[in-house]
Design brief:
By secondary structure, the protein is an alpha+beta fold. Helices cover 27% and strands 23% of the residues. A hairpin with a 2-residue loop joins strand 6 and strand 7. The protein is elongated, with a radius of gyration of 21 Å. The N and C termini lie far apart (51 Å).
């Protein structure tokens, strides 16, 4: 259901082009201020049209897409890819995360000194 006329809600469009797993997640992102349309903070019911720039912040990474076609319903990934132009910067590499200090089973609760050592390992 690709359209070239009219307007589509931004939360519906984000869900349709697979930038969010559910429409309620897309609406929640809008309400939390993680979605911007043409540089302005977007409410879930805000309309988008072809040519608009949509920025969606996800997990510390910002997706920057330009609306190419309007779409109301969720469709296959190939069709969804045709509805947007992805101008996102490359995703940052995952930092090597050290495992928290593991304790032997039955060792009991960590002491204050143990907690300080674990915090030092975590960089706090």
């Amino acid at each position: 259901m690709v359209e070239n006329e009219g307007n589509v809600r931004v939360d519906s469009w984000i869900w349709s082009v697979r930038l969010a797993k559910t429409r309620s997640a897309a609406a929640a992102a809008c309400k939390a201020g993680h979605v911007r349309v043409n540089g302005e903070r977007a409410k879930p019911a805000q309309a988008v049209k072809p040519g608009d720039e949509v920025r969606v912040r996800q997990e510390g990474w910002e997706r920057v897409v330009v609306v190419r076609k309007l779409i109301r319903k969720r469709v296959g990934a190939e069709v969804a890819a045709d509805c947007l132009v992805d101008n996102s910067p490359p995703r940052p590499a995952r930092e090597f995360v050290t495992a928290p200090g593991l304790r032997d089973r039955g060792a009991g609760r960590p002491t204050k000194r143990d907690r300080r050592d674990m915090d030092g390992l975590r960089g706090r």
